[in-house]
Amino acid sequence: MFEHHHQSSSVSMIEKETPESQRPRTFLRDSDEDMSDSNSVRARFEKMIREAQESVCSAIEAADGGGKFKEDVWSRPGGGGGISRVLQDGAVWEKAGVNVSVVYGVMPPEAYRAAKPSNADANSDIKPGPVPFFAAGISSVLHPKNPFAPTLHFNYRYFETDAREDAPGAPRQWWFGGGTDLTPAYIFEEDVKHFHLVQKRACDKFDASFYPRFKKWCDDYFYIKHRGERRGLGGIFFDDLNDYDQEMLLSFATECTNSVVPAYLPIIEKRKDVPFTDHHKAWQQLRRGRYVEFNLVYDRGTTFGLKTGGRIESILVSLPLTARWEYDHRPKEGSEEWKLLDACINPKNGSNYNSKEYLCPRWSCFFLSLSLSLSLRLLVCALLILRYWKLTSWCEVVQLF
């Protein structure tokens, strides 16, 4: 669950949620000064994540072929709320959660100093006093049943702090965060290449430095320190991002969110019906155990939510329905399981994922055939020239084919 990611032992409790029977038009406060402005970043970001929740859930249900999401709508007395949707025990999905939330809260000064971006008014004199904040985001984890189908996680969020009550008129701070990452139990190179190419294309529309920068950030963030390995095969991740134009970053977050379905669903369609054995399923469960370890020990969103009294069902929706731990399990070197573990320990450099190397199979075949066709034409032309100058015989020409 998104309920923001910055942690502090002294963070104030978030208000208890109240169940709602219907989805409200907006979760923004009526008293919010931006409420009347439909073009505000707060309003547009909320609109974007709610539309994304609809499109992702529709795609997930279509892929499952029968499973339906259970929906819970909730609000808080002081403003904000969210929509939690979970599909579990479906035909394709063991557990799929897609949540949106809008959160209003108050942080003490020390939490604000830890939470704010490093380039945000670092030398300001923070007097004792509460720091109001606004946060909105979409968060999702999708766990398929088939061990050859990978797990997907994505999360995109927007965060603002208002002026403190004891410092009226102070500038508002804002930043974006998020990412999309893939966690397979077995490696299919074409799947990984397709997934990373979609992330790269989304990034390259805005800044060529984004993909390599955010790919490395993803590898570093989803690192299970006590295991010495990454949770999966990466993707993109960024946080505290406010060193670009706000409109540009809003568009970037929207582009990344809209790239989730085309990056992931084609992989699911290819892998959801692949036959598997108990051996494959046991390995998937062991990797799910790693997922649980990371989320409960290191994930800042989970730990923050647990410490601040966030909605527990939304916080823990990222956990798989089943997982497994075996004492001192070591896959056989050279096995498919070993290859996955090795890739999690030694991630590929971001420069390996480029549009020339990682074209979709259909297009790579096209360019390969085109290349062979051109080579063949050049060979024929060369042989005709040789024959014209009587440097070889027709018999020799025929023998070359």
UniProtKB/TrEMBL annotation:
Subunit text: Homodimer.
Pathway: Porphyrin-containing compound metabolism; protoporphyrin-IX biosynthesis; protoporphyrinogen-IX from coproporphyrinogen-III (O2 route): step 1/1
GO MF entries: coproporphyrinogen oxidase activity
Species this chain originates from: Nyssa sinensis
GO biological process: chlorophyll biosynthetic process; protoporphyrinogen IX biosynthetic process
Subcellular compartments: Plastid, Chloroplast
One of the Pfam families matching this protein, by short name: Coprogen_oxidas
PROSITE patterns: COPROGEN_OXIDASE (PS01021)
Taxon lineage: Eukaryota, Viridiplantae, Streptophyta, Embryophyta, Tracheophyta
Biased segments, Basic and acidic residues type: 14-30
Gene3D superfamilies from the UniProt entry: Coproporphyrinogen III oxidase, aerobic
Protein's UniProt name: coproporphyrinogen oxidase
